[in-house]
Design goal:
With 299 residues, this protein is an alpha/beta fold. The chain has 11 helices and 12 strands. Strands 1-2-3-4-6-9 form a 6-stranded mixed β-sheet, with helices on both faces. It has a 3-stranded mixed β-sheet with strand order 5-7-8. Helix 1 runs parallel beside helix 3 and helix 9 runs antiparallel to helix 10. The protein is globular.
Length: 299
C-alpha cells in the first residue's frame, strides 16, 4: 500500500506492517496523520491480502500521541462568536479523533501493537484499541492528558478499564505517571515484554504469522465475538455467537481446516454418526467425528 506521507505500510505473507513515520516529532500525529491512520485501517479492513496487522513506530519512540500544534490550533475556535456553534464544532473535532481510534478496533483483522520507548497520551488511546499489545523493557506508557489540563477523551478512559484492573486504570488516569515495560506486563496492559525492539519485532512477527495461517473467516469472527462479549452480558454474547456461527460456520474454511488436521495428526479412531434429518438437510450434517492422538475432538 502506497501513497501515505506519515506512515509506512507494507504487506507480506498476509501480514500488514503499519509504522508511524514522524520520528522528528516522536511520532506525534497532526491532523493529516490522523486522517491517514483512519484511511489505512479502513483499507486494511477490506484488503484480502492482509489477515493480521502489526502497528509499530519508526525512530526513538512508538507514538507521542496528538501533536501539540494540533491542540494549540483549537484556539481558533474562539473566533466562532456563537457559543452554541463553537461547542458543536469542538464536539465534532473530538468525535472525529475518536472515530480514527475506533477504526483500529473496527478493522476486522487482529491488530498487534509493538511498543518501544514512549507511548504517550494519544498513543495510549491507540494501543487500547488494538487487540494485543507487546513492548520492550524500556517502553513506558503515560496518560499525559491530565498534566495538560484536560481528561483523556478519545478512548483510553473507556477501553483501559476493560483491559486492566479498573482501580489501576484510575490511578494512571488521575496521576499521569509512567508505567514501564515490566509493570505494563505485570498489570496486564501488555502480553509480553522483550529486551529490545529487534527481539520484540521478531517475536511479534512470529505471533502474527501464526494468526495469518489460520482461517481468515474464523479469525475475523473471533475478533467480532471478543469485542461483542466485552460490551455485553454472557447470555447476550452466547446468543449472538449462535446466530453468527449459524451464518458463517458452513464455509469452505471449515473443510480446509479439517483436511489440514487430517494431515497433521494421526487419526486413531473414527465414529460414524447417523443423523435423522430430512433428505434435503443430509448434505449439511456432520457424518464423522475424528479422534486425534492429541485427544482433540473435531466435528
Amino acid at each position: 500500500m502506497h501513497g501515505f506521507k506519515h506512515f509506512d505500510v507494507t504487506i507480506k505473507d498476509y501480514i500488514a506492517q503499519v509504522s508511524f513515520n514522524r520520528p522528528h516529532k516522536a511520532n506525534a500525529l497532526h491532523a493529516e496523520a490522523w486522517e491517514e491512520m483512519q484511511n489505512i485501517f479502513e483499507r486494511l479492513d477490506e484488503a484480502e491480502e492482509a489477515r493480521v496487522i502489526i502497528l509499530k513506530g519508526e525512530g526513538k519512540h512508538f507514538c507521542a500521541g496528538i501533536d501539540l500544534d494540533l491542540l494549540m490550533g483549537m484556539q481558533a475556535y474562539h473566533e466562532i462568536k456563537c457559543e452554541g456553534r463553537k461547542r458543536e464544532t469542538i464536539r465534532k473535532f473530538i468525535l472525529k479523533l475518536q472515530d480514527t481510534i475506533t477504526a483500529i478496533e473496527k478493522c476486522r483483522k487482529p491488530v498487534l501493537a509493538a511498543v518501544h520507548k514512549g507511548c504517550i497520551g494519544g498513543g495510549v488511546d491507540i494501543v487500547t484499541a488494538c487487540d494485543m499489545r507487546y513492548c520492550t523493557e524500556d517502553a513506558y506508557f503515560t496518560i499525559k492528558e491530565i498534566d495538560l489540563g484536560f481528561a483523556a477523551d478519545i478512548g483510553t478512559l473507556q477501553r483501559l478499564p476493560k483491559i486492566i484492573n479498573p482501580g489501576i486504570a484510575s490511578e494512571l488516569a488521575f496521576t499521569g505517571r509512567n508505567v514501564d515495560g515490566k509493570e505494563a506486563a505485570d498489570i496486564g496492559l501488555v502480553t509480553r515484554v522483550y529486551a529490545d525492539q529487534a527481539q520484540m519485532i521478531e517475536e511479534v512477527e512470529k505471533i502474527a504469522a501464526m494468526i495469518a495461517a489460520k482461517s481468515p473467516l474464523a479469525v475475523r469472527s473471533t475478533k467480532q465475538m471478543l469485542l461483542y462479549s466485552r460490551d455485553h452480558t454472557v447470555a447476550d454474547s452466547l446468543d449472538y455467537m449462535a446466530s453468527w456461527n449459524a451464518a458463517v460456520l458452513l464455509s469452505k474454511d471449515l473443510g480446509e481446516a479439517f483436511q489440514n488436521e487430517l494431515h497433521t495428526h494421526r487419526v486413531i479412531g473414527l465414529i460414524q454418526v447417523s443423523c435423522d434429518l430430512p433428505a434435503a438437510d443430509q448434505a449439511y450434517a456432520p457424518a464423522t467425528v475424528f479422534i486425534f492422538n492429541s485427544r482433540k475432538l473435531v466435528k
